[in-house]
């Protein structure tokens, strides 16, 4: 009995879904889409970003954008997710021996912002959150639930929430001035100089005397 030959790809019935490519290739396509989306969200905002423009910038068909990310809202949610390892590295620095923790946190921040690729992701997330409320809300949730909680969770005194907030404000401020805005002398200092100037302040926020204890807000009448 003669074997039936399988029709070539060009002769397959219309409407059948195409075969999926190798997993590695699919991951590469999704990453290209995300890279293009981050750039667009950071420069044009959410309203000014279209799936068609993202697809063109990523050199893929528009249908692939919705295939991987469903919608523009889904694409935004993926674009502002912290990069792989970002939170884990911060948690590791937060659990360093207390007397060295200011140095560890400062060094970790510099390493993250000076890692090729990672810095652009962080920069695009911050710029997107600056003018997109949904992105800001998501970033605030990640920051509060993970990073602030990690720093505060490794402190013992009653001021740990305040101390964690002060540490965060210092690290974020340095990152913004040095890597996002790139203004002032801080942007020109070498890595060791930044650690020398910033780490003692971080350490003071962690272990030093803060002085005035903040009072709880007055109850509304």
How would you describe the overall organization of this protein?
The protein is built from 10 helices and no strands. The protein has 2 domains: 23-79, Arc Repressor Mutant, subunit A; 86-207, Tetracycline Repressor, domain 2, CATH 1.10.357.10. With 221 residues, the protein is an all-alpha fold. Helix 5 runs parallel beside helix 8. The model is unreliable at 5-21 (pLDDT under 50). The radius of gyration is 23 Å and the shape is elongated.
Quickly describe the structure.
The chain is mainly α and 221 residues long.
Termini separation comes to 91 Å
Helix percentage: 55-70%
Overall CATH architecture of the largest domain: Orthogonal Bundle
> In total, how many beta strands?
0
Proportion in β-strands: under 5%
* Cα Rg: 23 Å
| Main sheet specs | none
Which class best fits the helix and strand makeup? mainly alpha
* CATH-defined superfamily of the largest domain: Tetracycline Repressor, domain 2
CATH class of the largest domain: Mainly Alpha
The shape, in one word, is elongated
What is the string of SSEs from the N terminus onward?
HHHHHHHHHH
Pick out the low-confidence regions.
5-21
The CATH topology of the largest domain turns out to be: Tetracycline Repressor, domain 2
What is the total number of structural domains?
2
Helical run tally: 10
> Residue-averaged pLDDT, rounded?
85
């Amino acid at each position: 009995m003669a074997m039936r030959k399988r029709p070539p790809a060009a002769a397959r019935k219309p409407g059948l879904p195409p075969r999926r490519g190798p997993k590695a290739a699919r991951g590469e396509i999704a990453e290209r889409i995300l890279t293009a989306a981050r750039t667009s969200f950071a420069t044009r905002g959410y309203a000014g970003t279209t799936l068609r423009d993202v697809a063109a910038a990523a050199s893929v068909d528009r249908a692939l954008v919705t295939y991987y990310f469903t919608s523009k809202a889904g694409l935004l949610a993926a674009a502002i997710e912290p990069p792989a390892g970002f939170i884990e590295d911060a948690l590791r620095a937060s659990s360093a021996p207390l007397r060295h923790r200011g140095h560890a946190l400062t060094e970790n921040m510099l390493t993250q912002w000076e890692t090729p690729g990672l810095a652009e992701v962080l920069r695009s997330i911050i710029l997107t959150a600056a003018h997109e409320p949904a992105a800001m809300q998501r970033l605030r949730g990640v920051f509060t639930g993970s990073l602030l909680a990690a720093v505060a969770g490794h402190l013992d005194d009653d001021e740990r929430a305040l101390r964690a907030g002060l540490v965060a404000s210092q690290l974020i401020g340095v990152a913004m001035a040095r890597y996002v805005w790139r203004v002032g002398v801080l942007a020109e200092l070498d890595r060791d100089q930044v650690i020398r100037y910033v780490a003692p302040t971080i350490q003071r926020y962690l272990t030093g005397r803060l002085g005035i204890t903040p009072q709880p807000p007055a109850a509304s009448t």
